[in-house]
Write a structure and sequence with these properties.
By secondary structure, this protein is mainly α. It contains 22 helices and 2 strands.
């Protein structure tokens, strides 16, 4: 028997959903608190006999919940109980949300639209706050762009921004009673354009790539639905479209590989002031095609820098890196020698950039894609030629996958168990003599790989089944927004442990349940 009237319980339920969806990009506390509201309301609402009937008739809910059951079952025997219980606590939405949403009264299409638009308003709020930080905190640049996402991981936030674009475009251009019209449509399109701009500014390579790929797939989808003569012309355009970014990346790569050649037997050995240059011919580090450790005179660098800045030459820049290393890279990027003459050519903006940890002047162009592609190529170059991976996203992920491969080769049938993931990685890094410093020795950063090494082949296959079976059973792939959402999540699994954090896990579970288990058109057989 319900504690309050059905109307009050219903209103609390809707409030809890709205609070949860608005909190997703903004507040971890809000995510937890809203789920407590939903759970408490669900318990006080009672009517468990009817809820049990619904659960008995809908296998898809139980199959999706089984993802949590797998995590709990694979606790054998955890060497780190704190890690295991922390992981299970994060995964609790896998148990709670399907039960609550799946057994509550279904949502109308209009209410579903409201929930989605409240989500986009939360994402908009997060992006505007981030933009304010970008404007009023000059130290935020390409070297610490993660600070632009102040509430949750910048990668998870980028996924939410990308999904918000598709939500707004969908409701701006669909042709039914749910469509945004008039000034609402103009606002929706404007915000979606802002989200695309912000995604570029956020510089999350994962988010940008996923948004690009999903946008490309969506274009193919709508092109197939065209019935006009220019359909085949659109197909041709789509076939050509990937060539443009491919050509641009090739151009950046070609420019990067045009590295100067130095004949060390013929170069100047002294500066204009008569001091000796230092050359490290063994180092292959480059910036904009110039050798970093050539034409270096540390004595003049110390004297010149001390006159230009209050930061200690032998200390750290504001990004936490060795300042002298940042200075040498920056001078090299501008084609300047690392001596007093080189420093004298730096203006106030250059000094400020170096203090903030910017190692190359091209990174000052925040709105351009070129610096991001260049930085990715540079990281791989450093990893290959100088065996350096720490602090660099792509090389680190290569090391993570190498470690994961070693773990899987020993535990491919049943995995290491829920509580043993980090310990297994720690041991593997030592065994493989990893290039990574201890602070960078993290987990796989690939959700599929994490499933495989944690649960083995059997658990991995079941989890994939538990993700796809409910989607097929509930006709989820007939829903445009659900299809887009799931594709975004699955692509993110390739490059990130998306659901190993509370924000990523809640984002995944909430929208999965919302689209599949909360729809108005579902029909549940409750007769004995």
């Amino acid at each position: 028997m319900p504690v309050f009237s059905h109307t009050i319980h219903r209103n609390i339920y809707i409030f809890g959903l709205l609070l949860l969806v608005f909190s997703l990009p903004l507040s971890v506390f809000g995510m937890s608190f809203s789920q407590l509201i939903l759970l408490g309301n669900w318990v006080l609402e009672g009517n468990f006999r009817e809820k049990v009937k619904i659960l008995k008739s809908r296998k898809s809910i139980w199959i999706f919940i089984s993802i949590f059951i797998v995590h709990a079952f694979w606790l054998f025997p955890p060497q780190d109980y704190n890690y295991a219980y922390h992981d299970l606590r994060i995964k609790l939405p896998l148990l709670v949300l399907p039960l609550i949403v799946g057994t509550s009264k279904s949502l109308s299409k209009h209410l579903l639209r409201t929930i989605l638009l409240v989500f986009t308003s939360g994402v908009l709020s997060g992006s505007l706050i981030s933009m304010a930080i970008f404007i009023f905190k000059p130290s935020v640049n390409i070297t610490n762009y993660r600070e632009l996402s102040v509430f949750i991981s910048h990668i998870r936030f980028s996924l939410m921004v990308a999904f918000s674009v598709f939500i707004l475009f969908y409701y701006s251009f669909i042709k039914n009673e749910l469509a945004l019209t008039g000034w609402k449509k103009i606002i929706g399109i404007t915000i979606s354009v802002w989200f695309i701009i912000f995604l570029i500014l956020l510089k999350s390579l994962t988010g940008l790539l996923i948004f690009g790929v999903v946008s490309y797939l969506v274009l193919w989808f709508f092109t197939f639905k065209l019935k006009f003569w220019y359909k085949w012309f659109c197909f041709l355009i789509l076939l050509i479209l990937p060539v443009i970014p491919g050509w641009y990346v090739y151009k950046v790569l070609k420019n990067f590989t045009q590295i100067e050649q130095i004949d060390y037997s013929k170069v100047d050995k002294k500066t204009k002031s008569g001091n000796d240059y230092f050359f490290n011919s063994e180092s292959k580090s480059v910036e904009n095609g110039k050798i970093v450790w050539a034409f270096c005179c540390e004595k003049e660098l110390v004297d010149g820098w001390t006159k230009k800045s209050k930061l200690n030459y032998l200390g750290k820049d504001k990004h936490g890196n060795e300042l002298r290393y940042t200075l040498v890279r920056y001078l090299t990027s501008k084609g300047l020698r690392k001596d007093s003459a080189g420093i004298s050519n730096l203006n106030n903006d250059d000094i400020k950039a170096i203090e903030n940890g910017v190692p190359n002047y091209i990174f000052l162009n925040e709105w351009k894609i070129y610096p991001m592609i260049y930085n990715t190529i540079w990281e791989l170059y450093e990893y290959k030629n100088n065996k350096y991976a720490g602090g660099h996203s792509l090389p680190q992920r290569i090391e993570y996958l190498k470690a994961a491969k070693g773990i899987i080769s020993k535990h491919y049938l049943f995995g290491v168990g829920t509580g043993n993931v980090q310990i297994s990685f720690d041991k593997q890094y030592v065994q493989m003599k990893s290039l990574l410093e201890k602070e960078w020795r993290l987990r796989a950063h690939n959700q599929f790989v994490t499933f495989l090494l944690t649960f083995g082949v059997f658990g991995f296959v079941w989890i994939l089944f538990a993700i796809f079976y409910p989607a097929i059973k509930e006709n989820g792939f007939k829903d445009f927004l659900f299809s887009v959402f799931l594709i975004i999540l699955l692509f993110s699994f390739i490059n990130e442990d998306t659901i190993e954090t509370q924000a990523g896990l809640t984002f995944f579970v909430f929208f999965y349940c919302l689209f599949l288990f909360a729809k108005e058109q579902r029909v549940v057989q409750t007769k004995q």
